[in-house]
Amino acid sequence: MDSDLFSRRRAERFAQLLDEANGGRRHHVRSRADDQLAALVAVGQRLGAAPPAVEVDPEFRTGLRAMLLATAEREGIGTPAVAPEPAAAETGRGRLLPAVTARRARARGAILVGVAAGAIALSGISAASENAVPGDALYGMKRSTERAQLALTSSDISRGQLFLDFARTRLAEAAALRGDRDGYSAVLDDMDADTRQGVRLLTSAAVQRSDPAALDTVNSFLAGQRRAVGGLLDDGTRADRDRTRRSLALLDAVRKRSDALRAAIACGLPAPAGSDALGPAPTACPGDR
């Protein structure tokens, strides 16, 4: 998606088209972007006509309210305007200040209301997309939500755990796509990519800290994931089973890497110089050579 999509003119035109589609006053203008925005307008109409049947989490509602109140207090929204000093009121600039301040306050208030409405709407759509699989209308929203979670996570350990959670999610999607050769293989490719990303972050953190705690997270993931992936071998096509075995081989490689790093940390080896898709590649302890 090109960055121009979010330009001010396109955003304003999109708002006009959406308003017109919902019965608002028609604007007798036409933009070159109208054809590109038509699909987004159609999505907006469908979302308005059939909103997701979900409820906003009470904790989210409480946190959002607190955030909005704090922002309103910080920005001075809702507080009475301060009368200008007599000296300032005599000048042209002084006479304009109250009006400008009021307009800014109203604009900030409108932005806050928009942020609140958008956050609540997106939380509902995000919840409705949790069970979406590739090919569903809301699957793109599901993956966008995952990217947003990663963007809001600061530590490598937390990001690694998120990637492993996403690998579990891809596994559930794969179970729903058995029989669809291309879709099944593609979602397992994504699952393996998430597994590698999560394992690399967690093994790197374990080596940097000389602490195997992050490896415990990896092993806990492997225990359930390998059993569940193995279950995909039942009643699958030959092509599906062959693809599933590749994912099982990756999980076995992850287990070997985790065990080798745990042993290296235990015997006090320095941080490995080499690494690969699974993170640091340790050498054997002196007694094991």
Automatic annotation (TrEMBL):
It comes from the Bacteria. Residues 132-204 form the DUF5667 domain. InterPro entries: DUF5667 (IPR043725). Pfam families: DUF5667. The chain crosses the membrane at residues 110-128. Keywords: Membrane, Transmembrane, Transmembrane helix. This is DUF5667 domain-containing protein.
